[in-house]
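Appendix B, Record 12. Input sequence as logged:
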Amino acid sequence: MSVPNAVPLFPIYNDLKSIDLLSYPQLQTLLNQQPEWFNKHWLWAQEFLVYIGRNKSEHTFSRFRNEVERFLLWTFLIKEKPLDELRKSDILEYADFCWQPPVSWICFASYEKFLPQAGVYITNKQWAPFRLKLAKGDSTTKRDKNNYRPSQQTLTASFTAIIAFYKYLMNEEYCAGNPAQIAKKDCRYFIKDAQVKEIKRLTGSQWQYVLDVAVELANSDPNHERSLFLIAALKTMFLRISELSERSGWSPTMGHFWEDDENNWWLKIYGKGRKIRDVTVPVHFIEFLKRYRLSRGLSGLPTQGDTTPVIEKIRGRGGMTSRQLSRIVQTVFDQAYEKMKASVGEDKARKLKEASAHWLRHTGASIEIERGRALKDVSEDLGHSSMATTDTIYVHSEDKKRAASGKERKVN
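Logged structural output:
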């Protein structure tokens, strides 16, 4: 039996909250098909996603939009059963579907869902609900859609979004129960994890190559002073890339750096969960802050009320998006990888090819914990809600002892 083609259901938040379906003719055609509950359920999902977009981060909205979209498409086109009639067995059937979706529902890259054409938005034929993503830096594995399998993290994200969706529907009295909540504990694809946790971080040597390359780039081209500042800030203050980016409702400015009455410097950060925290700014970072500001024609240190963006576009006005900042980091990583590979070989440089901007946060925090800094202090700078989270992610002294004790086992 042929599988119906999947079509995107939801545009970005700003378009979704005041959507005119006449501008999305293919979507309108789908929703106007019988049965009538197609349109009703789409409206439920729109209401939920607008709530998420208004009250949560852009990242959370995008994640929930993708998961709810997949679930609704399965409900509409595969299961053909209304949301308020689904039971635990149906949700487990959806998990089976997500474990091995039809190849026509899989793509290799992240595509825009809708494309403008002749005054309306048409569905992008390259888009698909599932994406087969190769490990970063892996150029040897053949891309085969039949090899798609969701990770434990992906499965968890799917259930989290669907459970949240049903909770919203229950609160609004659209649905009487939450079958996803009940089904999760019986999903056969969840594996109890007793693995040694791998921190995605750079070694001290790899970090030194990254920093050296950033310094060299800045010394040769003033435009790269921005690259050096960004790299140093992410690693030294354990920041997420989003925490330095321009976002709806928050613009990081130089005035967010401040000095207390004991000459300690802090940086005010708008983090996950819409929480503002103050991060300690070490003395050794101040020279990078001064260098970057002077390269922009500013005074050496910021003053209270300074509204200059922390990281400013070279062309245009205002701050930069997370995606733009990530590209800057990637440029430095790529050059550091090539330099390290030429100097000490591929094996020692390999992780630089896999690394993302978030590795700098992990690198800085791990080095600080190994240095002996109090776990509580590191946890507060990271913005973790609990010190136990920091302990779980970063402290693996017993695992390292076990690895050391087992390293010299012989074959003969």
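The chain has 16 helices and seven strands.
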